Amino acid sequence: MADIFREVEEELKADRASALAKKYGPYVIGFALAIVLGTLGYNLWQDWDLERRSERSNLYAAALALAGDGDNEAAVAALAEFGEPDGSYATLATFERARLLADDGRRDEALALWAGLATNEAAGPALQGAARLFFVMHQIDDGDPGELRVMLEPLFAVGNGFRPLALELDAILSLREGDRAKARQLYAEIADDLTAPPGLRARAAQVLASLGEGAGQ
Question: Which residue from 7, 45, 61, 96 has the highest number of Cβ atoms inside 10 Å of its Cβ?
Answer without folding.
Answer: 96
